[in-house]
Amino acid sequence: MDHHLLHVIHDITGKVIDRIGGDGDEEDPGLQLQLLRNLRCSSSQQSLLRRRLALAFFFHDPAYLSKDRQELLDMKAVTRYLSQPRFVINSETNYPGLTAAIAILAIGLDNGDPPPTEATKEIITAFNNDLDMLAQRIKGMFTQIVDTGASQMRRTEAKEVLESFHSCLVYAVRTKQKPKGMMWEDDVGAEKQKRVMINFVQGKT
Predict the structure, then answer these.
(1) Which residue from 97, 114, 88, 89 is spatially nearest to 60, judged by alpha carbons?
(2) Rounded distance, CA 57 to CA 51, Å?
(3) Would you say 169 and 138 are in contact if contact means Cβ atoms under 8 Å apart?
(4) Phi-psi bin for 120: left (phi > 0), alpha (psi -120 to 50), beta?
(5) How many whole angstroms separate alpha carbon 96 and alpha carbon 155?
(6) Which of 15, 41, 107, 115 could anchor a disulfide with 54, C-beta 3.0 to 4.6 Å?
């Protein structure tokens, strides 16, 4: 991409992040997600820009707009970031904000940028280990959400999106599935969860 154009995009998007992202405590991931949903992704460059913007929103850091594709995603950094107070499940949890933030993360993560097929066993193992740590963090979040049906729809939606994201990590991003015995171990259940996540990210019901 032309460096001048990248600079312009970086500047404009930084202002967008400030306008609809706030200063961290006042950010509105719902508006961020709406913007991402409406971005066209008919080419690999557009998809990459959308991912960069999603991660810039998620981390509230415009630097992600200029990161190389190979350096765009750090699973360990994502897992550490999810330990922030706004991702802790308790009586003060903002469930609509949490739901949108996880959907934004899913857009930024995409296929997880797995190592190439010719990568060494050590590199592939390290990738899967980092992904497993992220999946475990996501699982820890949705298992803490207690929803009681129709009266807690926001909690229910957040839990479903977290469960679906967990399933995507395990079945669609991991280079090799773990042995049977884990959540959503059946193909039908895993595929259903992936569809839920995809539909939510795309704004479908």
Answers:
(1) 97
(2) 10
(3) yes
(4) beta
(5) 8
(6) 107
Q: What is residue 165's predicted lDDT score, i.e. its pLDDT?
A: 94
CA 190 to CA 193: how far, in whole Å? 5
**Residue-level pLDDT at 169:** 93
- Assigned token pair, 205: 């019901």
Could you tell me how many residues make up the chain?
A: 205
- DSSP symbols for 44-99: HHHHHHHHHHHHHHHHT-GGGGG--GGGS--HHHHHHHTTSGGGS-STT--HHHHH
Residue 28 CA to residue 22 CA, distance in Å, equals: 7
Q: What is the mean pLDDT of the chain?
A: 81
Half-sphere exposure of 198 (CA within 13 A, CB side): 9
Phi/psi of residue 44, each to 5°? -65, -35
157 contacts: CB under 8 Å, gap ≥ 6: 95, 99
**Average pLDDT of the segment spanning 146-156:** 80
Q: Is the full-model pTM beyond 0.85? A: no
Cα maximum dimension of the chain: 52
Q: Where are the alpha helices (DSSP H) in 60-204?
A: 75-81, 95-109, 121-143, 153-168, 187-202
